[in-house]
């Protein structure tokens, strides 16, 4: 097939989950022979790796700058990420010829305009040619037709691992992530008495509050706040379990990375977690916001090394069959080509 010219747009100067998603996908697309551009995201985290892969990067921190970037780059498809970028993509068509197909990737289980006037967002939605949802939970929440394309990661080769008695949480310390639930569940499980520790990798506004909770629960000796870590793959290959507490996760890239590492995941039975580990036999899901349920799952796994190994292997098999970058890139390209064909008609 003819290579595509692809522009990813994020109105951002950060490097969080969405920006990481774009970096991974853009690099695979460039490796496949497509001409790829990325506009937006943190320059220090994106520019170098993208340049090494042959992807051109342009910093964008406002809708106006995004519109300018879209209009200045001749591409077949503009893939926007998050609402501000969607607005920029739609605005780029006003007063000019409709050239590039517009495809939006939806990362969150929210309808546009949930937190503001909805009418302008309905206009934006009518101007888009296609929408991609990263999970069934997102697709069911956005109230527009979409194609589900799961995020993926590269397979991880495992050899000579020595897992420790560590429960890992890796997420931003923000209220919506419900890190406190994981701390309370760890305390209630009683596994600290058997030598298990809890490591929390991440930063955010709730850190002081969470440290106070740890002190209140009298588990400070068993809990480590690691701050921001850029070595999560190593942590995942040496930890004993991962806890994912977010009840409304779009999909959960950290969970997929843990699955790839064979690290057994204990997660809330909600959102994208139902797509990732929900169908794994012998899974370790707990009802959203259920501290006792989470504690029970932790206690069951902590006391059974064979079950941990079996669950980690089963979740890894699911990742290798359903959540790979190869599958994500192929399915995304199919959406692009369908949108382009529709636009040209």
UniProtKB/TrEMBL annotation:
Organism domain of life: Bacteria
Question: Any idea where the Glycosyl transferase family domain is?
Answer: 163-316
Residues annotated as coiled-coil are none
Gene Ontology MF terms: glycosyltransferase activity
Pfam families for the chain? Glyco_transf_4, Glycos_transf_1
Keyword set, alphabetical order: Glycosyltransferase, Transferase
Claim: Transferase is one of the keywords in the record: yes
Keyword Ribonucleoprotein (UniProt)? no
Q: Which residues form the Glycosyltransferase subfamily 4-like N-terminal domain?
A: 17-155
The family database entries (Gene3D superfamilies) matched by this protein are listed as: Glycogen Phosphorylase B
CDD domains reported for this sequence: GT4_PimA-like
Q: What is this protein called?
A: Glycosyltransferase family 4 protein
């Amino acid at each position: 097939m003819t290579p595509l010219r692809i522009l990813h747009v994020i109105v951002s100067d950060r490097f969080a989950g969405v920006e990481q998603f774009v970096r991974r996908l853009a690099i695979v697309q460039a490796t496949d022979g497509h001409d790829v551009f990325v506009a937006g995201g943190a320059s220090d985290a994106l520019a170098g790796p993208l340049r090494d892969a042959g992807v051109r990067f342009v910093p964008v921190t406002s809708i106006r700058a995004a519109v300018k970037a879209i209009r200045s780059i001749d591409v077949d498809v503009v893939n926007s990420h998050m609402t501000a970028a969607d607005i920029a993509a739609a605005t780029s068509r006003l007063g000019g010829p409709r050239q590039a197909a517009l495809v939006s990737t939806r990362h969150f289980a929210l309808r546009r305009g949930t937190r503001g006037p909805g009418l302008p967002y309905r206009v934006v939605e009518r101007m888009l040619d296609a929408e991609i949802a990263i999970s069934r939970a997102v697709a069911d929440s956005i109230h527009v037709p979409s194609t589900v394309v799961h995020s993926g990661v590269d397979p991880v080769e495992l050899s000579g691992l020595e897992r420790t008695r560590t429960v890992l949480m890796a997420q931003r310390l923000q209220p919506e992530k419900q890190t406190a639930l994981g701390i309370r569940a760890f305390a209630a499980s009683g596994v600290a008495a058997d030598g298990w520790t809890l490591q929390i990798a991440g930063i955010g506004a709730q850190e002081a509050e969470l440290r106070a909770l740890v002190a209140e629960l009298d588990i400070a000796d068993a809990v480590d706040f690691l701050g921001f870590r850029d070595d999560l793959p190593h942590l995942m290959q040496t930890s004993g379990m991962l806890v994912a507490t977010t009840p409304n996760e779009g999909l959960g890239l950290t969970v997929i990375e843990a699955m790839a590492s064979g690290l057994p995941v204990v997660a809330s039975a909600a959102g994208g977690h139902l797509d990732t580990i929900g169908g794994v036999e012998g899974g370790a899901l707990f009802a959203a916001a259920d501290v006792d349920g989470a504690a029970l799952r932790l206690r069951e796994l902590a006391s059974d090394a064979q079950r941990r190994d079996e669950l980690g292997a089963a979740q890894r098999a699911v990742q290798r069959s359903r959540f790979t970058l190869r599958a994500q890139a192929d399915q995304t390209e199919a959406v692009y080509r369908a949108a382009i064909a529709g636009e040209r008609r």
